[in-house]
Amino acid sequence: MPCELWAIDAGGGEAILRVGRRWYLSSMDRAWRPVEVKAPQGVLEWSLSRHVVPVGRQYEDLERAVITARRLCLEAWRTGGTTSGEVGRLLSDEAPLPADDGWGRRQSEIIRQAVKLDHYFEVQGCTSEESLRLTLQVLQELQESGDWRRLWGRSLLLRLLNDAREVYLRQGGDAEKASPELSDYQQRLYKKNLQKLSFDELSCLSLWADGDYTAEEVATVLGLSAEMVLGRLSRAAAEMGRPLVQLREPALAEFCRMLLSRFR
């Protein structure tokens, strides 16, 4: 069965491989014998705690992928090159393989954004283990959708946060946090009040309205300063004609996400 060499930690002598829906850790410490890893928790924990270089290449079977991982690590140690560029150079010496769709090249960037989902799940009351499991599920669904190809920067983060919310509710999260359907009157009112807001202002408001985030937490998630977030939320409140404390509405958050889609 085909096997994907998903990523390696060349310095640590470890690799993660995937065969269908099963994930394996192969390491020098265990003579490169693949050991099944609990997905998604174990895979995400591994990827976030090491110097991971994405590979994302398919091989005929698990054995061939393990051999390649071992060779890459040994060669990296010999040359002292464990960066993405060095590993890519080593991979280029192999026989041509099916074209990479780009996920492997963007994997590190996407994972860096996905780390911020941990705070989202924490606010929902999830344990660290549940957060890891749900985060990797979000990543898997994003990869399968193919939408990641057109999402970058803030748009990518907001898509991940939106998917995180849907995954959380699907897994039996608090149904009261689901957004109710908007009446025609609400849609007209929201559109009138919010259509002049910028992408960044809508981004801040969508998080503020959807949950229990403080302005500081919104700033952390979006990579902004607290002062910038407060300024954008204040402008949004002015457009709505209501105090900021009254804008904690799931329906408003849902409408903000709908407006954000026009920027993608």
Describe the 3D structure:
This protein has 12 helices and 5 strands. It has helices spanning 41-48, 62-79, 84-92, 103-114, 117-123, 128-145, 153-170, 184-194, 199-210, 215-222, 226-240, 250-260; strands spanning 3-9, 14-19, 22-27, 35-37, 53-59. The two termini are 37 Å apart. Mean pLDDT is 79; it is low at 95-99 and 175-179.
Strands, helices and their partners?
Blueprint: E1 3-9, E2 14-19, E3 22-27, E4 35-37, H1 41-48, E5 53-59, H2 62-79, H3 84-92, H4 103-114, H5 117-123, H6 128-145, H7 153-170, H8 184-194, H9 199-210, H10 215-222, H11 226-240, H12 250-260
Antiparallel strand pairs: 1-2, 1-5, 2-3, 3-4
A few lines on this structure:
With 264 residues, this protein is α+β, with helices and mostly antiparallel strands. It has 12 helices and 5 strands.
